[in-house]
């Protein structure tokens, strides 16, 4: 058995079905073909997914914007709080405190195939930074900019997408996998006491 921690950054919102659920779109499922090749990273991850799924013993877990309970420099929260400006687009995210034990359990049960390995729902950077101000630094302020403005200052396009976590939830009925807004609030509650 092999567990491959992969990425959901192989999708992006578009003008069709793949737009934020809160705008009437639908979340991307494990059956949808990748539609984002805007970066070398995403292009190669889509290729790897196709290759590893040829093996019957692979559990392929698609993470999105992993979040930990600390302010480690690699934590998404630490990264976005340091940005001069952020985009306000809903995205799926993986709360590691909740989902890493699920990954171990899935491997021990010899589950295989591809799973969107994220908390259900989507959350915007603004919502996260508002929680940061509420729990960690009440003086914290941030600014927004548009996708078009963001494209001018980054080296490669970014994936923005909501992944459907229904298959993950069905395979793990006893696991505590909270909707992303609830899970993110719990991250900050734990962070505040640490």
Write the topology of this structure.
Layout: E1 2-7, H1 40-52, E2 58-63, H2 76-81, E3 85-86, H3 96-108, E4 113-116, H4 125-135, E5 143-144, H5 147-151, H6 166-171, H7 180-193
Parallel strand pairs: 1-2, 2-4, 3-5
Helix pairs in contact: 4-7
End-to-end gap:
36 Å
Number of strands: 5
Secondary-structure-derived class: alpha/beta
Average pLDDT level: 94
Q: How are the strands ordered across the major sheet?
A: 1-2-4
Rg from Cα: 17 Å
Estimate what percentage of residues fall within beta strands. 5-15%
Identify the notable features of this structure and list them briefly:
194 residues; alpha/beta; 3-stranded parallel sheet; two-stranded parallel ribbon; 5 strands; 35% helix; 10% strand
Could you explain how this protein is built, in words?
There is one protein chain. The chain is an alpha/beta fold and 194 residues long. It has helices at 40-52, 76-81, 96-108, 125-135, 147-151, 166-171, 180-193; strands at 2-7, 58-63, 85-86, 113-116, 143-144. Strands 1-2-4 form a 3-stranded parallel β-sheet, with helices on both faces. Strand 1 (2-7), helix 1 (40-52) and strand 2 form a beta-alpha-beta unit.
Overview in brief:
It contains 7 helices and 5 strands, in the order βαβαβαβαβααα.
């Amino acid at each position: 058995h092999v567990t491959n921690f992969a990425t959901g950054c192989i999708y992006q919102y578009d003008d069709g079905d793949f737009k934020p659920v809160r705008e009437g779109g639908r979340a991307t499922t494990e059956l949808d073909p990748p539609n984002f090749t805007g970066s070398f990273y995403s292009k190669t991850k889509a290729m790897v997914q196709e290759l590893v799924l040829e093996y019957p013993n692979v559990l392929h877990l698609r993470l999105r914007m992993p979040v930990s309970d600390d302010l480690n420099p690699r934590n998404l929260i630490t990264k976005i709080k340091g940005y001069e400006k952020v985009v306000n687009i809903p995205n799926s995210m993986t709360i590691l405190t909740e989902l890493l034990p699920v990954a171990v359990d899935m491997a021990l049960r010899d589950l295989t195939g591809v799973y969107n390995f994220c908390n259900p729902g989507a959350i915007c950077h603004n919502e996260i930074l508002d929680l940061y101000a509420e729990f960690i630094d009440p003086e914290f302020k941030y600014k927004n900019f548009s996708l078009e403005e963001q494209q001018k200052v980054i080296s490669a396009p970014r994936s923005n997408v909501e992944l459907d976590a229904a298959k993950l939830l069905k395979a793990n009925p006893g696991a505590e996998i909270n909707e992303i807004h609830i899970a993110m609030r719990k991250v900050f509650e734990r962070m505040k006491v640490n």
